[in-house]
Amino acid sequence: MRYALENGIKKEATKGAKGMCLCCGAEVIAKCGKIRIAHWAHKNNEECSYSKKEPKTQWHLDWQNYFPKEWQEVRCIEEQTGEVHIADIKTPNGLVVEFQHSAINPEERLSRERYHKNMIWVIDGTRLKYDFKRFTKNIENLQPFIISNSEIPFSLYTVKVNWVDEILPPSWLSATVPLYFDFRPEKIDDSESDQQKSLRNLMWGFFRKGKTIFAVSMPHNCFVDYIQREVIRDIEQYAITTLQKVQIIHMLQQKSQLQNIRENYRSPYIRRRRRL
């Protein structure tokens, strides 16, 4: 646990400190060793939903530190059951961001999605080496319909349905909220191509709307900014609306082309009849 309450104030673990668990209220003590990142642990080994969350890694801390302390490790209480959830990030308007480095139990993942609803996952795409290879191997199955430019800092794609399970890790295929993958490595691999390196430096998101699966790519700093301004989920509605417009334009172009073909076919016939 990154935070606990010391005299009612949310604080990080420091050597010799004692506090109260944000989730269950039990006594916790600071663990500040040389191997693991400084954290809080239950004094009497009590278990609660907060303590069951995966241990914080440097990757977690780096992500959380992009946002105000008040947004980090926010206590959320389910009204009907009284169950307590601790959100990695929760913005003033209720957007929850959960950072996931290790594998997660499908039931636990679905439980968080059902409870928070207005949330996104940020997933460490470097934990398993094959995840990035799988993604780059099948990236041609992303069909772009908006390319980033000076006005729009992100690109939008549709994903061929039959190829979704070839692009995404199997454990995330049933997610009900947007997924964003962070493929940035701790160390640069000189054996990778320039294209692979450029793909790693983008945040890659996936979300489903109806029968359509969308993908979005954007620079890392743009992604952070969209969360800070609480507009990251606006991309979903923008994607739906824009795709509909693109499809309408494409349909009109096809009709126009078909009309031209008909006119070109009919014109010689009409001219011959007029001569007669």
Topology:
Elements: E1 3-6, E2 9-12, E3 18-20, E4 27-31, E5 39-42, H1 49-52, H2 58-64, E6 72-77, E7 84-90, E8 96-100, H3 106-116, E9 119-124, H4 129-137, E10 142-146, E11 155-159, H5 164-167, E12 179-182, H6 194-200, E13 202-209, E14 212-219, H7 220-228, H8 234-275
Parallel strand pairs: 8-9, 9-12
Antiparallel strand pairs: 1-2, 3-4, 4-5, 6-7, 7-8, 10-11, 11-14, 12-13, 13-14
**How many beta strands in the DSSP annotation?**
14
User: What portion of the residues fall into strands of 2 or more residues?
Assistant: 25-35%
What is the arithmetic mean of pLDDT? Answer: 86
Strand order within the widest beta sheet: 6-7-8-9-12-13-14-11-10
Largest sheet: 9 strands, mixed
Distance between the termini: 92 Å
* Count of structural domains: 2
Order of helices and strands: EEEEEHHEEEHEHEEHEHEEHH
Number of helices: 8
- What is the helix fraction of residues, given as a range? 25-40%
Tell me the quaternary state: single chain
Q: What characteristic shape results from the CA principal axes?
A: elongated
**What does the radius of gyration come to?**
25 Å
Structural category is alpha+beta
Uncertain segments are none
Quick recap of the structure?
By secondary structure, the chain is α+β, with helices and mostly antiparallel strands. It has helices at residues 49-52, 58-64, 106-116, 129-137, 164-167, 194-200, 220-228, 234-275; strands at residues 3-6, 9-12, 18-20, 27-31, 39-42, 72-77, 84-90, 96-100, 119-124, 142-146, 155-159, 179-182, 202-209, 212-219. The protein is elongated, with a radius of gyration of 25 Å.
